[in-house]
Amino acid sequence: MSLSRCEAGYFIQGVFCEICIPGGWSPGGFRFECSPCRGMPENGKGEYTDYGSKVQACNYTCGLGVPNVKSNPHCYDPFNYALQFFGGVRGMVMILISVILCALLLLLRSRGKMGREVARQPLNAMTLPGISFLEPHRGVLRRFCGRLCSRIMPGSFDGLQPQLRRSLSGGEAERRPVEMQLPKEKLPFHVCRVYFHGDNRSQSPWFLDEHLPASVEQMVGPEQWQRLAAAASALAGIPVWEARKEAALGVLYPPLEPLYARQR
User: Fold this and answer.
1) CA–CA separation, 230 vs 237, rounded Å?
2) 0.90 cut: is pTM over it?
3) Three-class secondary structure of residue 79 per DSSP
4) What is the DSSP string of 16-40?
5) Theoretical Cys-Cys bridge with 105: which of 7, 213, 235, 255, CB 3.0 to 4.6 Å?
6) Helix, strand, or coil here: 50?
7) Coil/strand/helix, residue 14
8) Per-residue pLDDT for 58 more than 80?
């Protein structure tokens, strides 16, 4: 039996003090065995390294093929280590859901942007020299043209038929066959096909230029055109509250702004 007490990290072995092997520790004194160390993960991926540990939390290292213990204190294998880096299984699920939602929102925004681009691009269904026309095949423009035509008085285009006859005199009917397709009763619907400036957004609403295009001077008088432009611009105007709502959506949740504008 040892005649003196052992130092920390040692235990009594016969008449001498023996050092604790890795995995054991001792506070010293008259102890006949080392106590087991604590702190190493229980997944079996680590091992204790130090002899003569003086505290219960002994030093350990992770095994081969496992990230270093300094950045991987739980000795996770490479797959679980990468998984824990993103917050575990729950974190990976949340990231996956977020990616899917962002992809769907971007897809909806892209489709809405493409729809608006197509809606405001002039089509070649009808074209006169110097002016472009937009066929109202899309619902929003069709409704707009219907409301615009209903607002214009039926007598706004009276006296147009003689002007059409004069415009087709002198062999001009052969050179300009498109004008022959514009009888008086159909003219308001064709005027609705004129390309409107703007993109139907709060920053740039649709409006019709008050200047009479040279290509329709023989068909529409300046006063009639100005009356049409005023009615169209007033009808296409965007209320202040709607513009503020669109601006608020652009700040709070930008993906919803184009979807809201698309519903207009």
Assistant:
1) 11
2) no
3) helix
4) EEEEPPTTEE---BS-SSPEEPB-S
5) 255
6) coil
7) coil
8) yes
